[in-house]
Amino acid sequence: MMAGQGRMARRGSTGFALGRTLRGACAGLGLVLLPLPSQACEDAACKAQTAWMEAFNGVQIIQRGADGKAGTIITGRYSTKPDTDMAFSYDLPIAEPPKKAEVAVLNGMILLDKGIEGSGASPADSMISPLVMARIAAGLLSQAFPKGPDSVGAQEVVAIPRGTVAIEAAFLSAGARFGAPWSLNGTASRAGNGSISYALVLKSEGEGSKEQTFGEARRPFTYAAEGRFDVFPTDFVMDGAISLEGWMVRAEGIDPKPATVAGLRTIAEARVARKNDIGKPDATRDFSGFWKEKCSNTYGLKISKQPKAHLYALAFCGPGGCDTPVEARKSYIAGDPHMEIVNATTLTIDGSTYLRCER
Questions:
Q1: What are the two backbone dihedrals, phi and then psi, of residue 341, each rounded to the nearest 5 degrees?
Q2: pTM for this structure?
């Protein structure tokens, strides 16, 4: 399965940019893809997990079949900073013939893919799944090595008979959770260049462990995590000279469009496409408040004014908290091609309808 093992739970229809892209509904080129988890880190376990993610900027994830053979190898570069480039390549060595696919995000806004079309996988799923799996791995490693990545030796045995905190990766619309108690066994090793390889097996007995989409609780639950975290000296930036021949860009609705048909010949041209298309200031309206698809939902968008006149930050909020101001999407709303003002209490954002439930 190109987009992951099918063991991660999608959240309810969050409707914010990534929530809709996971359902294939990108609006034009305006895809906002945030790599950080949607909830604010307030507890020690979450902070330790985040510290592991931030210590690296590259990852390899190996998914094995029941026969133990590597079915999918995902290799890529990521960033925990907003508005950055990320890219993942998928190698399927057991396919006949072996296949390769690529997916990338430019400036945190534009989703491009190559080789995924026709595979049955969603390009947005293929981007977010490695981030969820990497964050779960970071959570497991942070429990095994609470002093951080530097405490991992050349060859370590991991054996935790009973974990007492839940392991969770929560992004804007996809996530996984393994409730306590759980056990963890495996190995981890640190190379001379700072990379850390791991092969771990978690068995969770806890309430709320999510095995499939929509988060059915199944117990006991076993999850295998195998791969490597890598360290590169600089943040990843895709070469602007790379040709987009053969690449796809998410366009109208769920229909893919060749990048060249969209008028994008190179990465450099894609990088600036609609970069500044966030509407125009409108002094006659105030969109501040808490907006939800249904006011009974426990998640939604907190829209707040920014220091720049009539600019707004759209922060996704859930039970665990809200996106930080840095993470939040910025827009004037009025005139933004990805939003529509229906009336004073109704907005359409990336194809989803939101109601102002609180001022």
A1: -90, 105
A2: 0.70
